[in-house]
Structure formats: structure tokens, C-alpha cells
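Project standup — Tuesday

K.O.: blocked on the structure for the chain from last sprint. Re-posting the sequence here as requested.
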Amino acid sequence: MNSAFTILLKTFVHDANFSKTIFAQDAIFSGATFNQNVSFSEATFKTYMPFFAQWGEVRARFSIYADSRKHNFKTRQGSQPIPRNQPIPLGKAELDDVEHIIPVGAVLFNPKSWDDKTQDHPISEPAMPLENSDTEE
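H.V.: unblocked you, prediction finished:
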């Protein structure tokens, strides 16, 4: 499947499966909300690595209730231009004593909680790069 893909404000209520998708142009997931698991297994990015954070405050959001062990951010071997054919750059984020490994710059959110001040679900600080990103996931 070839795809010129842009997502800015999309909510994935169920699992989001991008396995074997070929992203021919930008793949922008900033602003996307993932309520369940996500897979990029064997996906190919032809032009740019996917964006999970842009413009400072527009960030992909991952639910703390998804099973983070089922997320798959490993792209197809040789997928360009992910540096050194590595998976999507991952980092750690924590919210409500729950830690997940998600794309760098993305945030966790708690869909079962509401912040009256911000009129939104609480979110974590952006995921920061793993110290040894070649071995940790």
C-alpha cells in the first residue's frame, strides 16, 4: 500500500496498524491520539522519518491504558531515512506512575481523567530519548 499520509488531528479508538505501509511522503502523526496499540512493523518511510511532535505543542498522544508491550515501532530494514536503519526514535514518558516507551516528543495521556483547568485529559511531559537507543525499547 503506497500512501501520501498526513494526520494532524485523528483519534485512533482501536489498534492502529500501519504494518507494511509505504509512506511515500510526509507521515505526520503530531496531534494524533492513540487509545490502543500501534504497529509500524515493516513500514517504509521513503522521504522523511515520521513526525510525532511538531510546532512545540502539537504532539501525538498515547493512552496510559494501552499495553505498551504490544506497540511496535520497528520499521522495515532499509527503510529510509530513519538513521542507520534503526526503528523510530523512542523515549520514555511517565504519567500517573505509568511508564511507556513511545516515540520521542510524544506524550502519554489519561483518558479516564479530566483536568478542568486545561479542559483536557492530563498529559505527561514529552518522551525523552532513551540513553542507549540502540538497545532499549
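K.O.: great, moving the ticket to review. The chain is about 0% helix and 35% strand. The radius of gyration is 14 Å.
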